[in-house]
Amino acid sequence: MPPHQQPVKLTSEQIEALEGMYGNRFLLEPAPDHKIPKSGMSAQEAMRLIGEEMVLDGLPARNLATFVTTWMEPEAERVIQEALRVNFIDHAEYPQSAEIEQRCIRMLADLFNAPGETTGARTQGSSEAIMLGALSLKWKWRGRREAAGKSVDRPNLVFGGDVHVVWEKFCRYFDVEPRIVPLKPDKYTIGPEDVEPHIDENTIGVAAVLGTTFTGHADDIRGINDYLVGLKNEKGLDVPLHVDAASGGFVWPFLYPESEWDFRLEQVRSINVSGHKFGLVYPGVGWLVFREKSDLPEDLVFYENYLGKRDATFTLNFSTGSAMVLAQYYNLIRFGHDGYRYIMETMKYNARQLAKQITEIGEFELIGGEDDEQLPLVAFKLAGEHDYDEFDVSAQLAAERGWMVPAYTLPPNAEHIKIMRVLVKETLSSSLATCLGNDIAEACKTLDAKGSLHPIDRKRVKTNTGF
């Protein structure tokens, strides 16, 4: 190897000298990855090293797959920054953080039309909220069965294939039989006729979704509730309903206020919602709200006194930061009801404009109609025959413009259906939505051109571009 191509070998003294001159030792050294380094580095070096690693991640503003909030106001970020060191669970030392949690729960209970005094909990997200809510369903069912002198060894939970995977996790972790209603090629949500065959005396509850991950639509919550009310009145079988409003809980009250899905319905006993989705807070914060205090079994609440006072805890986690609780309160008082409505209406408007533009491309059909109650998103799939599929379009968008638009298949029995989905959030303005629509059209043109190649060449192109 010619001398000028020889690898550079430096002594530790030379590396330290370069460090002092240029301030970045990892230009010539790999980043630590297997062992804690023997010696540390300066704060500036550590910051620069991590910053250089993070440029490989995607830009949050172009991540149209995530439901999670990717932007907050500078004032909200200051609130978060100042609360990062506050341990929320330590109510003795930080009582106002606990009070603000309760304010948020009361505000959400009012938003969800709770009939009176209630209770709830902040959580790390809707996954923890769902675990806690489903545990309350199991405990209440077990109490009813024991009071009647009946067996408690075969609990089951009914939900559709459109739920988040956390519902299946709950069933596996807490020994509950999942009774999953499969989807159909032309039906992506569930209703009363779907849950009816699965309910019996061992059913701890039914879970219904307000704003599915797959298409953004809602289960027929009103219809399921009416069926469960009839079941209670006619057969004495009291099956509660939990609403998984992780995505829709901050959307429906503002876009569809007349739609009854919440505590206005008799059998709805608990609701979860993600503050870090359309609650417009950074991850992670979720909320669980009960209809009445009695819906939270007392023996699921623990009491401890080793942080300075006797406190009740109803969590799966223990220590956690106060920052996102305060950030949620910031949003609630900053935007108010009118502000949230304006933000949701703006996102819905931009979603409809993007949907219209995608339809006009001529290659796609939308999932759902313009009059549907739906999250501010656009779900669509290819129409007709093509030499490429939705995954190809997604990859082409990422390669050409850096857009992260997910392509995926639906759950059983509609797993052969491929869909793409764009979340239209605050950061996707009207002009950016127009750019995205144009880029989708250009991606299809590129793929059409590739599709005109000989099949062997087409396969080579797809292999070389990571399709």
Content of β-strand: 5-15%
**What fraction, in percent, of the residue positions are helical?**
25-40%
Number of helices: 13
Rg, alpha carbons: 26 Å
Major beta sheet, specifics?
A: 7 strands, mixed
Task: Count the E strands.
Answer: 13
CATH architecture of the largest domain: 3-Layer(aba) Sandwich
Structural class: alpha/beta
Mean pLDDT: 90
What is the domain total for the residues? 3
CATH class of the largest domain: Alpha Beta
What's the N-to-C terminus distance?
Answer: 37 Å
Order of helices and strands: HHHHEHEHEHEHEHEEEEHEEHEEHH
What general outline do the C-alpha atoms trace? globular
Q: Identify the CATH homologous superfamily of the largest domain.
A: Type I PLP-dependent aspartate aminotransferase-like (Major domain)
Which fold name corresponds to the CATH topology of the largest domain?
Aspartate Aminotransferase, domain 2
Low-confidence stretches: 452-467
Strand order, sheet with most strands:
1-7-6-5-4-2-3
Topology:
Layout: H1 12-22, H2 43-54, H3 74-83, H4 95-111, E1 120-123, H5 126-147, E2 156-160, H6 166-173, E3 177-181, H7 192-195, E4 203-209, H8 221-235, E5 241-244, H9 252-255, E6 268-274, E7 286-290, E8 302-304, E9 311-313, H10 323-361, E10 364-366, E11 377-382, H11 390-401, E12 407-409, E13 418-423, H12 430-451, H13 455-464
Parallel strand pairs: 2-3, 2-4, 4-5, 5-6
Antiparallel strand pairs: 1-7, 6-7, 8-9, 10-11, 11-13, 12-13
Overall description:
The chain has about 475 residues and is an alpha/beta fold. The strands form 3 sheets. Strands 1-7-6-5-4-2-3 form a 7-stranded mixed sheet, sandwiched between helices. The C terminus is likely disordered. The protein has 3 domains: about 55 residues, no CATH class; about 260 residues, Type I PLP-dependent aspartate aminotransferase-like (Major domain) (Aspartate Aminotransferase, domain 2, 3-Layer(aba) Sandwich), CATH 3.40.640.10; about 120 residues, Aspartate Aminotransferase, domain 1. The chain is globular, with a radius of gyration of 26 Å. The chain is built from 13 helices and 13 strands.
